Amino acid sequence: MPSSLLWAVDIFGRVYTLSTVGQYWELCKDTQLEFKRVSAVKQCCWGIACDHQVYTYVFSGDVPIRYQEETYENQRWNPVGGFCEKLLPSDRWQWSDVSGLKHQQLDSFTLPSPHWEWESDWYVDENIGGEPTEKGGWTYAIDFPSTYTKDKKWNSCVRRRRWIRYRRYKSRDIWAKIVSHDEPDQLPDPFNDISIGGWEITDEPLGRLSVWAVSLQGRVWFRRGVNSHNPCGTSWIEMVGEMMMVTVGLNNQVRAAGRVQALLPVLRAVSLDKGTQGLNWEGKGLNSALKVTVSTSPVWQTGSATEFCSASTISVWGIGCDDRAIYFRQGVTPSELSGKTWKAIVSGRESDRSQTGSSTSLLSAGCFFTDDIQNQTSAVIQGDADPSSDTELAVPTSPGSALLGAAAKANLEMKPSANANPPAEPQWINIDLKEAQKQPVLSVSSFADTSSLSSLGTFSVAAEDAYGADEHPLWAWVSGGGCLVDLHSPLKWFTPNLGCLSSSVQSLSLSITPAQTAAWRKQIFQQLSERTKRELENFRHYEQAIEQSVWVKTGALQWWRNWKPHKWMDVRVALEQFTGSDGMRDSILFIYYMYHEEKKYIHVFLNEVTIIVEVLNEAKHSFALYTPERTKQRWPIRLAAATEQEMHDWLSLLTMSCCESRRIQGPPSHHAIWSVTCKGDIFVSEPSPELEAGPQLMPCDQMFWRQVGGHLRLIECNSRGVVWGIGYDHTAWVYTGGYGGGFIQGLASSADNIYTQSDVKCVYIYENQRWNPVTGYSSRGLPTDRYMWSDASGLQECTKTNTKPPSPQWSWVSDWYIDFSPTGGTDREGWQYAADFPAPRSCSLLKCKIVTNGPWLEVPPVTLWDISIIPSSDADDEEAVALWAISDKGDVLCRLGVTQQNPAGTSWLHVGTDQPFISISIGAFYQVWAIARDGSAFYRGSVSPNKPAGDCWYHIPSPQKQKLKQVSVGRTSVFVLDKNGNLWYRQGITPSYPQGSTWDHVSNNIRKMSVGPLDQVWVIADKVQGSHSLSCGTVCHRTGVQPLEPKGLSWDYGIGGGWEHITVRGNATEASRLAVPDTAEENLAVSKEGEDEEGKGKTEHSKTPLMVSESQELDRNAVNC
């Protein structure tokens, strides 16, 4: 547990601190000051001295508190004297701020308070954007204002340079007086109460604090500009309302008590530093709030309460009116605001370490037993250092007194319950602060008779009087805003130091025998059992209570904003997860941002999120959230974290919350749809029967995708749960049946069947040269040529020095070397030649590697290029599953011994071919189709379970002037894809003639495709236009596929972009097939012309291409390849 401090003020005005890792109070410096009250946070402490002036105490640290002052010197060029100080009347000031609107001379800067000192004199900043400028630091532009550059050009008419000076805050580890600029001798009004908080205000920068104060006249003041770089703030501004006391929470809540006892004002501040006009106080009656007993006695004091979300507890402190001791309220949580018991802090001062107590102090620090146990031993010393125990502490009081703690100043922030009808206002609980009067502590025997279960007493007032006020402080004020109490780390505050007791007292604790201890435990157990039975009997007629809890996680991320110009901006995010009365969990993600200096937010219900995917980015650790509406727009919510670990923590938490909202857990089903992004991430979706057919078709943009650990290039599956994948390095992997892996840990990941997986990818760049008659081939090209070092397209410059791995998760594993195996071959030096670009060029490559884990096992030793599994079969689990593959060299292979129990199989069977192949697919009834490297199609005849390799290949002519690159076979349909992105359907396939007759064009703009066991067609579209922008790599579903219309009718657009591969080979979830009505935008229009041709015996099927507006810009916000 990190060390934090509890602050307190004694009756003499001296300020003490007590560390959570210590046991003694330490006196603060500047003992000459006397304080009335203090308010502390972890970074600093503010207080009101007895002169009614405000002071702040800032801790020293390794890093100094520095602030940069800057001003700009502006000059204009004239034909006579060149650049000079004479400017035009319409120009900015000679010395101004960066905007030029504010006059800022060097001598106009002064120190804001005596607590600052200049660290250096003014000097010129000779850098612009991280690059050094010429000597003098001047930057040039055409006119004011404009874009400044370090280079002086012929049309540079104005110039400017920046002057910098640093000031340092010097008043650290001492009390620094807060003075007013208008009246340095005194504040706007003598203050009576002060509170500091707001260190977690949404959308505020880190280090920002909120300081509120109340004057003697009841006026409320707010300190502007308090942050980690300016601990004293800038000025006081007066707020509306007349109050008596104020308290500030850690985020957006400020509460105050008015002079009228029937009013407890509440302010929910959206911006505590801006927009102070028009803020209204919301009144609440005291009877519905925390019960506060207001004493008119001069000894009445209050503490403070602070909520620590990280510890999931609320720390409440109080001061007793009679004994002036500090008490800690134990067991206070958001679900149980009243807590369990008060515990006294018995720590001594730092000066008390060398003192020892007399044996008479045993009565005030001993353990108490019932009469039976007390007869066996006279006294026992027992310390209770566990702050989470249920021990009840009786506080010494007198009639009419009260223990006043955090109830009077409670800044408890309660989240609303997750029931169907949440209350409009927070529910307040009455806490009886006079509970100690019921059982006053007078002696050991009287305490034993009334509370035999107690194990810790307090020092009585009479016992402390012998020490005097100088030795044991009597407390007047306490502040726990900067004190973090961890329930799992016991404190030393509640246990008297045994070193201060005499040896005779310590020897008494050693006289307890094991028999006495056993008897004591037995009696306590019996009394607890009897009390439990009694309480259950009295409340048997009550209904069972169901806990409704709210869990919140906040953090700072960056968001790719919606409006132009699109760029990253800092935001605050908060994930609220609540559990309803039915046990269902749901979550909401809030994103708080600034828009034209106004705070706004967007929220996303996680039960509406369809996918959370990591984005391929070289510079940012970013990820995207999709909803059905944002999928239509091609405009997801993009967020970026500062580190990779932080991004993975958010990805894991959000993914788990989405699965909980949809009640999805465990491994994917056998009918799941698998997909792979261009980054290599694997996603899976559980299909609905309404996805393919039914009265109400489910749009595929509403499908929910969850990530599975691992890294692959492509993946194939079938309805019997056999799933294979191929990595970028052509390594084959088989699915083990687990789930999770990668960054998904904990309950969202299976404990077994997760293994380490690695993948290697090649990054290519091209060196381009042009021939000239003088020097021959050289790197000097024409102005219209491509870059001399570029990517494959030649449109983007890529050199060996600026080429980076695809993402931060990758690392280089080789040096640059020349690729001698590109398509078309090379000469001895690796060059390719052509009449004009894209050649002559030479290809260089560099390998990078990623290491992750997931539910995958390697299948050695053959490396593969493509794979296909028979989609469905009615055979039992023991029958072999047909699996065909193509090696990275183009050989056709058949895997033997693949079953549901052994999905990896046993061995490979080579199938002979005349040329290398690049794609293969096996459909129902063992139909095997393949594509050769030259773009031609082949059909394998006589394949059966008894003859798994078939007998011969039948050549199938390709579509006219087209070269094919992929084939996919379903139950009765065969689709192929050519290298130009056109999708073709094979007509005329029958059981007697499985080769078919002709090719029919279906669509264009296709990157990859997959045909399922029900002949359903899914593709990865190359470009899809949304309502906002254009995205590449989008999942699309062919609707209207029926036996009479096997090509389907239209396209339904799903998740994207950034997708590289999809397979629906396992989706055998069959539903009643109904005709899908045509839509005006995408469906087929059956023309009268087509009816005439059908009468002639020839049917002309309409084509529905994926239309793309070429003028539409690519969506940089989408997850593109």
From TrEMBL:
<dbReference type="GO" id="GO:0097352">
    <property type="term" value="P:autophagosome maturation"/>
</dbReference>
<keyword id="KW-0968">Cytoplasmic vesicle</keyword>
<keyword id="KW-0458">Lysosome</keyword>
<dbReference type="GO" id="GO:0032266">
    <property type="term" value="F:phosphatidylinositol-3-phosphate binding"/>
</dbReference>
<dbReference type="GO" id="GO:0005765">
    <property type="term" value="C:lysosomal membrane"/>
</dbReference>
<protein>
    <recommendedName>
        <fullName>Tectonin beta-propeller repeat-containing protein 1</fullName>
    </recommendedName>
</protein>
<feature type="domain" description="Peroxin/Ferlin">
    <location>
        <begin position="64"/>
        <end position="125"/>
    </location>
</feature>
<keyword id="KW-0446">Lipid-binding</keyword>
<feature type="domain" description="Peroxin/Ferlin">
    <location>
        <begin position="137"/>
        <end position="170"/>
    </location>
</feature>
<dbReference type="GO" id="GO:0031410">
    <property type="term" value="C:cytoplasmic vesicle"/>
</dbReference>
<dbReference type="InterPro" id="IPR051513">
    <property type="entry name" value="Tectonin_beta-prop"/>
</dbReference>
<comment type="similarity">
    <text>Belongs to the TECPR1 family.</text>
</comment>
<keyword id="KW-0072">Autophagy</keyword>
<dbReference type="InterPro" id="IPR011993">
    <property type="entry name" value="PH-like_dom_sf"/>
</dbReference>
<dbReference type="InterPro" id="IPR006614">
    <property type="entry name" value="Peroxin/Ferlin"/>
</dbReference>
<dbReference type="InterPro" id="IPR010482">
    <property type="entry name" value="TECPR1-like_DysF"/>
</dbReference>
<dbReference type="GO" id="GO:0000421">
    <property type="term" value="C:autophagosome membrane"/>
</dbReference>
<keyword id="KW-0677">Repeat</keyword>
<feature type="region of interest" description="Disordered">
    <location>
        <begin position="1078"/>
        <end position="1121"/>
    </location>
</feature>
<dbReference type="Pfam" id="PF06398">
    <property type="entry name" value="Pex24p"/>
</dbReference>
<keyword id="KW-0472">Membrane</keyword>
<feature type="domain" description="Peroxin/Ferlin">
    <location>
        <begin position="758"/>
        <end position="819"/>
    </location>
</feature>
<dbReference type="InterPro" id="IPR006624">
    <property type="entry name" value="Beta-propeller_rpt_TECPR"/>
</dbReference>
<dbReference type="Pfam" id="PF19193">
    <property type="entry name" value="Tectonin"/>
</dbReference>
<dbReference type="Pfam" id="PF06462">
    <property type="entry name" value="Hyd_WA"/>
</dbReference>
